[in-house]
Design the sequence.
């Protein structure tokens, strides 16, 4: 093995990196999912105000003595959580402000991330630290859900025009996410390839198949297989059918059936066997005077014309997939030196659905909501797409850290015992500090969206019953030409069930 000429400066680099972490306020030391455990517990138990009191300090102006995330790489994550939680608390102006700030952060991070990747800036920094040291840029799912929550918050303010504008942004947002992430993935792959060439000795260990094939990673492989199964429920190209459905709803309200048909067709291509999608697609074909194919001839008619004089039920069912930290065992082999390093790794944690459906009684008739978007499938699919790059990067990063630690300690061993001891402590702290999985994600989201649209009830009153239980009477304002009823049920706790009624003219 050849002695690395940069070894003499690495001790100083380690000290600087450790100091940067301590001052960053990011999730580098304690992973993000663990930071949100109490907040999520309150939210799932229906104690939304208590959850907000836990979240609010993260949004304060940063001081040395507080836990503010403002200005840190985790700020976007906390802004997204704040946007969803404040919407559920009927603090719509607060929700809009938080989500608008989140949009600005995404725009800023995107511009910087692509430049840094192409210049190897961010990718090289990541190899010496961990993914938490870089700003959280949001998953594709996050970016598509953001304008939806803004739309509902505007609706909560009674601003139907702003609601309409946000719905019309959804198609553009969906398309932009696909284009931007394709470009980002390509730049990321190129950066990883260049870093593997730059760190050839460490890269000799970056064989993901060999690492995952290690018997010590058996449990991890089982978890990855579960994620792969869920990913097959996704829709390809980061498509979010609920966003497309709401885009069509906006065009239908305007009577723009040609544009609504674009969305209905997109839904049908993604989910040709979904009964609800088949109904809307058939309706769109009829409204645009197109031929209904034989396979749709017997599809039941919709109960009403979408968007007008209708009641749209949106059932946000369950708790979104989260990430938890586990260990990825990485065998490191160099000439004259070998070890096994346990690298922190994020895996998907899926949570059970609290309900199967939402039953609605209106004008003496009973109907049930139907699934339009499996949010876990969307997230798992993106995780799988990122997986090869994530594994290669973490193996390469682990190998580089182990190599640096080995060289630093070997050099220190040639000095006095105090220097050797200090170096051992320093390199150990360095590896511990940066061995944290990137579990950052937007967790206050549902596991799935279900919908039901029906003609506006004549009696202006409906009864909602999740799985036929917990009957809730809901009144629709007499002045509403149409209405949207949003039902949030993150858990089976009756206290967590929240109902919002939005009137539309």
Sequence:
């Amino acid at each position: 093995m050849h002695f690395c000429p940069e070894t003499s400066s690495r001790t100083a680099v380690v000290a600087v990196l450790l100091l940067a972490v301590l001052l960053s306020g990011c999730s580098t030391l304690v992973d993000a999912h663990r930071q949100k455990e109490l907040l999520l517990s309150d939210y799932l138990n229906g104690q939304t105000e208590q959850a907000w009191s836990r979240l609010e300090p993260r949004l304060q102006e940063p001081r040395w003595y507080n836990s503010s995330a403002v200005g840190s790489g985790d700020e976007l994550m906390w802004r997204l959580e704040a946007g969803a939680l404040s919407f559920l608390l009927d603090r719509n102006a607060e929700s809009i402000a938080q989500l608008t700030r989140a949009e600005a952060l995404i725009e800023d991070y995107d511009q910087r991330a692509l430049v840094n990747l192409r210049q190897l800036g961010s990718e090289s920094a990541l190899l010496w630290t961990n993914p938490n040291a870089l700003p959280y840029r949001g998953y594709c799912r996050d970016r598509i859900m953001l304008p939806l929550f803004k739309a509902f918050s505007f609706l909560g303010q009674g601003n139907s025009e702003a609601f309409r504008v946000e719905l019309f942004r959804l198609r553009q947002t969906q398309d932009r996410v696909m284009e931007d992430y394709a470009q980002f993935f390509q730049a990321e792959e190129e950066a990883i390839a260049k870093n593997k060439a730059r760190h050839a000795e460490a890269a000799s260990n970056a064989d993901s198949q060999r690492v995952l094939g290690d018997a010590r990673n058996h449990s991890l492989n089982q978890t990855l297989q579960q994620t792969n199964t869920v990913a097959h429920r996704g829709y390809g190209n980061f498509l979010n059918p609920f966003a497309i459905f709401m885009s069509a709803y906006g065009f239908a309200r305007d009577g723009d059936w040609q544009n609504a048909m674009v969305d209905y067709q997109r839904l049908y291509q993604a989910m040709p066997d979904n009964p609800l999608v088949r109904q809307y697609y058939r309706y769109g074909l009829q409204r645009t005077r197109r031929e209904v194919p034989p396979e749709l001839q017997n599809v039941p008619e919709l109960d009403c014309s979408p968007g007008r004089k209708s009641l749209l039920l949106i059932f946000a069912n369950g708790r979104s997939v989260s990430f938890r930290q586990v260990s990825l065992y990485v065998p490191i082999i160099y000439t004259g030196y070998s070890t096994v390093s346990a690298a922190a790794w994020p895996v998907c944690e899926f949570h059970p659905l609290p309900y199967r459906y939402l039953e609605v009684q209106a004008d003496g008739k009973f109907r049930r909501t139907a699934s339009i978007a499996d949010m876990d499938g969307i997230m798992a699919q993106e995780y799988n797409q990122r997986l090869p790059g994530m594994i290669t990067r973490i193996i390469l990063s682990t190998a580089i850290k182990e190599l640096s630690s080995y060289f630093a300690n070997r050099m220190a061993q040639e000095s006095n015992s105090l220097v050797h001891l200090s170096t051992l402590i320093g390199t150990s702290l360095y590896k511990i500090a940066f061995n944290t999985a990137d579990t950052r994600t937007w967790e206050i989201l549902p596991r799935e969206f279900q919908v039901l649209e029906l003609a506006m009830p004549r009696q202006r009153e409906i009864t909602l019953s999740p799985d036929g239980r917990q009957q809730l009477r809901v009144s629709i304002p007499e002045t509403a030409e149409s209405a949207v009823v949003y039902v949030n049920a993150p858990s089976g706790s009756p206290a967590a069930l929240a109902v919002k009624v939005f009137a539309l003219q």
Summary: The longest strand covers residues 322-334. The two ends are 75 Å apart (CA to CA). The chain has one domain: 7-236+319-448.
